Amino acid sequence: MQFLRTDDSRFEGLADYPFAPNYLGVNDTEGGRLRVHYLDEGTRGAAPVLLMHGEPTWSYLYRHMIPPLVAAGHRVVAPDLIGFGRSDKPIEQADYTYRRHVDWMSDWLGQVDLRDITLFAQDWGGLIGLRLVAAMPERFARIVVGNTALPTGDQPMGPAFEGWREYSQKVEDFNAGRIVYGGTTSKLTEAEVAAYNAPFPDDRYKAGARRFPMLVPSTPDDPAALPNRAAWKVLDKLKAPVLTTFGADDKIMAGAEKVFQKRMPGTAGQAHVVLQGAGHFLQEDVGPELARRINAFIAATG
Q1: What is the pLDDT of residues 220-247, one digit of tens each?
Q2: CATH architecture label of 3-301
């Protein structure tokens, strides 16, 4: 599998992102290796909080959440999905499939060997992260979901998502920073916009970012529909505590929290919240508040 690797110089001097890089190689499923970048902060012996990002972001998204989580005594681990951040970027859209994303992160998680995990998953971090939970439930102690879903293609995704999918394929300049800007309520600075564009020197690096919207199961016969239904069979019976933290101003994921609250037993009695002043990228809008709620959730269910 051919891939590109963003030069390290693109990530120098990013504000509020002083974290040391860590790398592991995973099986690219074609006999080669791809490099996954991840942050690993806090006490190594502590129970980990796993922060999983989505489209078109990277671990930079969690820069305001990592310090308060670490200060509470947690180990905090935040990977960059393949195709994003400092991780390798296969050059063909066809190289990216939902199954491969799950396989790549399953390989990574097995090598890092995290256990007693508190998962926070947003956007595609949930579509991938919840599949990891279903495959390896013994590794996960609790789950926090924010502005995400695990679709099976049995329900329409809605006009907002369909518009986003069309945009991702037709727009000439797929500007990740401006996309994140548009999905926030507080809005980003120009330096923050540039940081989200840092992984993508030119369009050759954006195959994964452009492909993600096309991988969301939107019809019952989608290749990922059956695996996601199988994952739900596990999640429907999962006893681990589950907290929903959604943004009030997220137009695409509005109401998705109710699916988790209805289906997952561990949501019962939890302090679910719809956060005011938070858009799709709630980590940008209310990151410290979100970290505080995760800390409280861990303390209450420990």
Answers
A1: 999 999 999 999 999 999 999 999 999 9
A2: 3-Layer(aba) Sandwich (3.40)
123 catalytic? Reply is yes
Q: What is the pLDDT of residues 90-115, one digit of tens each?
A: 999 999 999 999 999 999 999 999 99
Reply yes or no on whether 280 is catalytic.
yes
For the chain, the domains span 3-301
Q: Catalytic residue among 88, 123, 222, 285, which?
A: 123
Question: What's the pLDDT tens digit per position in 34-54?
Answer: 999 999 999 999 999 999 999
What are the structure tokens assigned to 106, written together? 């399953």
User: For 81, left (φ over 0), alpha (ψ -120 to 50), or beta?
Assistant: beta
Q: How far apart are CA 275 and CA 278, in angstroms?
A: 6
Q: CB atoms < 10 A from the CB of 41, how many?
A: 20
Q: How many whole angstroms separate alpha carbon 194 and alpha carbon 85? A: 12
Looking at 28, 80, 250, 285, which residue is catalytic?
A: 250
- Are 197 and 177 contacting, i.e. CB atoms less than 8 angstroms apart? yes
